[in-house]
């Protein structure tokens, strides 16, 4: 994350934009964040599948998982 001064500068500059442009910018940023999170989830799924295929984890029942969580 940028330092606090740079972040504050960005916010100040965005505040100078017309409201309509700020709305568009907000929508663009929201869509980018969704895309980044989607990519992160996909990457984590690929890593989990690779770990599973390498024998790094074993399937367990819900009951066994709950017992492990509670212990």
Key words describing this protein structure:
71 residues; 79% helix; elongated
- Structure classification: mainly alpha
Distance between the termini: 38 Å
Largest sheet: none
Number of structural units classed as domains:
1
Mean pLDDT: 93
- What is Rg? 21 Å
The number of distinct β-strands equals: 0
- The proportion of strand residues reads under 5%
| Subunit organisation of the chains | single chain
Q: Work out the helix count.
A: 3
> What percent of residues adopt helix (DSSP H or I)?
over 70%
Instruction: Pick out the low-confidence regions.
Output: none
Question: What's the order of the H and E elements?
Answer: HHH
- Judging from the principal axes of the Cα atoms, what is the shape? elongated
Can you tell me about this structure?
- The protein has helices spanning 4-15, 19-53, 62-70.
- With 71 residues, it is mainly alpha-helical.
- It has one domain.
- The longest helix is centred in the middle third of the chain and has 35 residues, at 19-53.
- The protein is elongated and about 55 Å long.
Q: What's this, in brief?
A:
This protein has 71 residues and is mainly alpha-helical. Helix content is 79%, strand content 0%. The protein has one domain (4-70).
Topology (SSEs and partners):
Elements: H1 4-15, H2 19-53, H3 62-70
């Amino acid at each position: 994350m940028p330092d606090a001064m740079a972040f504050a500068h960005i916010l100040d500059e965005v505040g100078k934009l017309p409201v309509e442009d700020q709305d568009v910018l907000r929508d663009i940023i929201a869509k980018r964040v969704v895309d980044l999170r989607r990519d992160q989830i996909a990457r984590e799924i690929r890593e989990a599948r690779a770990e599973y295929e390498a024998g790094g984890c074993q399937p367990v029942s819900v009951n066994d998982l709950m017992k492990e969580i509670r212990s």
